[in-house]
From TrEMBL:
GO function terms (MF aspect): DNA binding; DNA-binding transcription factor activity
Keywords of this entry: DNA-binding
Pfam families given in the database record: MarR
InterPro entries to which the protein is assigned, alphabetical: HTH_MarR-typ, MarR/SlyA-like, WH-like_DNA-bd_sf, WH_DNA-bd_sf
Alphabetical GO biological process terms: response to stress
PROSITE patterns found in the cross-reference section: HTH_MARR_2
Residue ranges of every copy of the HTH marR-type domain listed in the record: 9-137
The UniProt record lists the keyword Oxidoreductase: no
Name by which UniProt lists this protein: DNA-binding MarR family transcriptional regulator
Xref: Gene3D superfamilies: Winged helix-like DNA-binding domain superfamily/Winged helix DNA-binding domain
Organism: Kitasatospora viridis
Length: 137
């Protein structure tokens, strides 16, 4: 049976709310600053980064695996990949062994945009995740 003591429960709720607030503020800052400077949203940057990290492993990732890594549904990720592909930052390829499988590859333009945006991404993380009170305004 769960512990019904209100004091620890209140502490847990307060901790949960602080986590949500920090996540929201960080996500907002990343979207705003990456968008203003590089035309990327937080999720788009995350996809480019995951693909850049996988360059050592052949540079292509199945969409299903990528969806798990970036915490998006496959349909949301598919739309995001479509935007990145339209902007020349990724390429899609069919899996030769399984025609239902789709691989995503980072293009040279995508790699360059990622490399340019990475210092700002890290600065926003440093600034927002080390701040005591963070806001989205």
């Amino acid at each position: 049976m769960p512990n019904d003591d209100p004091a620890p429960a209140a502490d847990l709720v307060a901790e949960w709310r602080e986590l949500l607030a920090r996540h929201a503020a960080t996500a907002c800052a990343l979207d705003r600053e990456l968008g203003e400077h590089f035309g990327l949203g937080m999720s788009e940057f995350e996809v480019l980064e995951r693909l850049a990290e996988d360059l050592d492993c052949g540079g292509k990732v199945r969409v299903q695996e990528l969806a798990e890594k970036v915490h998006l549904s496959q349909s949301a990720l598919s739309r995001l990949i479509g935007r990145l592909e339209k902007n020349g930052m990724v390429e899609r390829h069919m899996c030769p062994e399984d025609r239902r499988g789709v691989f995503v590859l980072l293009s040279e333009d995508g790699r360059q945009r990622y490399e340019q945006a990475r210092p700002l991404h890290r600065e926003v993380l440093r600034r927002t995740l080390t701040a005591r009170q963070v806001t989205c305004g």
